[in-house]
Amino acid sequence: MKITIEVDCTPEEARSFLGLPDVSAANSVYVENITKAMKGVSNPAQMAEYAQALAPMGQVGLKLFQSFVEGGMKAASGGGAKSSD
Question: Is residue 80 within 8 Å of residue 74, measured between CB atoms?
Fold first, then answer.
């Protein structure tokens, strides 16, 4: 037997339902700081250096940011299709 339940809610509603804290203010500050730091970045190595210095989760955060940047670069170059790894 298979039962599927679909929940249609916003991220804010999901956080509230699960009892997670609202981190939107902290996230806004973090995104603003990264945006300011990334202005004037001329190459990927410099971008990685800035991301590592600003990442609150250390190496895990850097890997997440790196995958985000790589995905954006693939999508921008027309290679947005997912591969089946």
Answer: yes
